[in-house]
Amino acid sequence: MTPARVIDTQRLSTLSHEHEREILQFFHDLTGNGQGIERIRHEVAKVPFGEVRIDPMGKFLARLGSGKHVLMMNAQGAAETAGILYASRLIDELGMYDDFTLWVGNSPRMECQGPAWLQGLKDAGIHPDCLLMAEPTNLCIKMREGTTEGFLTETHPLVEAAIATYETLFELPPILSQAPSSGGPIGLPTIGFGPAEEQQGIPTRHLLKAAQFYAAFPTMFSEKMKPQ
User: Fold this and answer.
1) What average pLDDT does this structure show over 110-126?
2) Whose CB among 86, 124, 136, 151 lies 3.0–4.6 Å from 178's, allowing a Cys bridge?
3) Are strands 176-178 and 190-193 parallel, antiparallel or unpaired?
């Protein structure tokens, strides 16, 4: 089954635009004062996650699906948090489940620092195969470190899935670059993807495209990992 047949890009685009007002409101609420934790609880409740953990500081971990391939998406800011939570809604509303288990969460950039962060996930019983760091990249794909020293390349399955996701959704080749993780190698194949920097003002189209990418990526990765 080809990626184009796996993902109904038209339905995904249409539904993301139908949620445009909600996504924008959630993002603006997260950047306001005193609404973070309750707004996150409210949005998380809209998705039939199989498991949810939210701490008093508003950090959350939530699981969608129960397939073989375990993916982690970590949001580092308000825009990315809105993106991954609405991507989870899109996955469920469109029935875009495949052989994956998707964990979504939010950890600020300064906390997602190297192997200590990954060990914290493992201590919580979460053992991801790969990490999509939802961070400001101006809709470019950042290839970060793998399980050993050295950057991922375009031939790594994680990067191949990211490229296929972008090209399938937007019918253009993505901009790729290699960049180290801020806290050093995490010990997990990692890519970064997200909208523009918040201080520059985030275009609405960036929020919607990021949400579409996050929603489509788990299926694309699962397809990439299936025996050919």
Assistant:
1) 77
2) 151
3) unpaired
Backbone angles phi, psi at 156, to 5 degrees: -75, 140
How far apart (Å, rounded) are the C-alpha atoms in residues 197 and 58? 22
- Is 3-225 assigned to CATH 3.40.630.10? yes
Contact 139, 176 (CB under 8 A): no
Structure-block tokens of residue 23 = 């996504």
Instruction: Read off the pTM.
Output: 0.92
Give phi and psi for 84, each to the nearest 5.
Answer: -75, -30
Transcribe the chain into DSSP letters: --HHHHS-HHHHHHHHHHTHHHHHHHHHHHTSSS-HHHHHHHHHTTS--SEEEE-TTS-EEEEE---SEEEEEEE-SHHHHHHHHHHHHHHHHTT---SEEEEEEE--TTT--HHHHHHHHHHTT---SEEEEE---TTPEEE-B-SSSSB--TTSHHHHHHHHHHHHHHSSPPPEEE---TTS--SS-EEEE----GGG---HHHHHHHHHHHHHHHHHHHHHHS--
Of the candidates 130, 145, 153, the one whose C-alpha atom is nearest the C-alpha of residue 183 is 145
pLDDT digits (tens, 9 = 90+) for 17-40: 999 999 999 998 888 755 577 888
What does the block give as tokens for 71?
């993916």
How is residue 35 written in tokens? 């609404």
Looking at per-residue confidence, does 2 or 101 come out higher? Answer: 101
